[in-house]
Amino acid sequence: MKNLAIESSKEIIREALLQCRALTLELFASIDPEIFCPQAHPEFSPVGWHLGHIAFIESSWILQHLAGLPPMLPQYRRLWTADGLPKEERQNLPPIDVIYDYLNTVRERVLAYLETAPVEKEEKLWHWLVQHESHHNETVSFILSLHACNGKNVTSLVTSQVTKAANSLSPIENDFQTSEMVEIPAGEFEMGSNEVYALDCERLAHRFHLDSYWIDPYPVTCGQYRQFMEAGGYQQRELWSDAGWKWLEANEANEVSRPLYWSDSTDWDDCPVCGVSWYEADAYARFVGKRLPSEAEWEKAASWDARTGTKRLYPWGTDEPSAKTCNHSNSVGHVSPVNVCPDGQSAYGCFDMLGNVWEWTDSWFEGYEGFESFPYTGFSQLYFDRQHRVLRGGSWASRRWVLRCSARNWYNPWVRQILAGFRCAR
């Protein structure tokens, strides 16, 4: 029975590696070579760098760390490692065919090693590897969105709220814009995860008590955010935190008066607002007399089934994400109406909690009790600095391997290039 379990785990890992890589190659296949090397924004590496970095990490952790093989292309180590060259220097990439050959050769050797690998001892690292590639797929997606904002000709997979036809969106008919908030009764729930695929920042699972609170059933939409803009929300000092107002003043030259990914067309009013900083989300919440939820409040509303007293892997249950439950994995290529996936609602009746847009919370990113770094300190512990806010839920570009109610993301509160929106609580 043990051998059967090991072979089953190997097959699951092998299929995840192959499926994730196919999606990576599909994403890069439609990228214009002219935007492979240049940066779209000073804070982010070129898309081509991410492809080489994916291969480098796979080679480092599987072929070197586990299999004990020598490094491949050691002359490029400083280029591909995350703490090597400054981002602007990562534009000096090897020829594209060299990068693809590196990617393919590493993968061939990794799959060969998997055949005899002691996966019962290494399974957590294999699952981490698939998620690492998935995270970089999403980063590439929003970098392509930034190129589109800069007027570059990129790909049909890019978020392009200005050019996508409204008739490609199919909202469910209901009055969700004025939907009442959902009440979450006081009580304990299980937060975090101990599953083998859980990342270090999701561990350890623990019981957490919350007083009763209310939360929006949907993320804030463009139509709702438009009211904030038209009421002069970006000019009203009283709506902004001290740090938020300083950020706004410092970015006055950049004309921060709307979300980064924004269209003036009302065709997008049913879609979640996307491309806002934490400061903007916080100001909007004040505008409507609410606040941002804590990450615990978000996770309970997404995952807890009070009727059975159990935690759900996904808001809707245990079935893997699909087009019926959430907008994810570049299947649409942009945001979709917040009520377009009714099968994805949580036990409490909250919608759109996975996919579409990441959602800012009011929580600082820090470790849970019993936290242990994996596979290295710099992966998440480095960011326990009270300078990063937690985001939850995933986006339209998130791969299924990173989507679950316990997953956590983190960014500085001034970052708005990521595919982020929010919902409110009180």
Defining traits:
426 residues, alpha+beta, Four Helix Bundle (Hemerythrin (Met), subunit A), paralog of FGE (formylglycine-generating enzyme), 4-stranded mixed sheet, two-stranded antiparallel ribbon, 33% helix
Structure description:
With 426 residues, the chain is an alpha+beta fold. The protein has 2 domains: 2-149, Up-down Bundle (Four Helix Bundle (Hemerythrin (Met), subunit A)); 166-421, paralog of FGE (formylglycine-generating enzyme), CATH 3.90.1580. Helix content is 33%, strand content 8%. It contains 9 helices and 10 strands. Strands 9-8-7-10 form a 4-stranded mixed sheet. It has a two-stranded antiparallel sheet with strand order 1-4. α1 packs parallel to α5 (119-149), α2 runs parallel beside α4 and α7 (242-250) crosses α8 (278-287).
Tertiary shape: globular
Mean pLDDT across the residues is: 93
Spatial strand sequence of the major β-sheet? 9-8-7-10
Structural class: alpha+beta
Multimerization status: single chain
Provide the fold topology:
Layout: H1 2-29, H2 47-66, H3 77-80, H4 96-114, H5 119-149, E1 182-184, E2 187-191, E3 206-210, E4 213-215, H6 222-230, H7 242-250, H8 278-287, H9 295-303, E5 304-305, E6 310-311, E7 358-364, E8 389-392, E9 409-411, E10 420-421
Parallel strand pairs: 7-10
Antiparallel strand pairs: 1-4, 2-3, 5-6, 7-8, 8-9
Helix pairs in contact: 1-5, 2-4, 2-5, 7-8
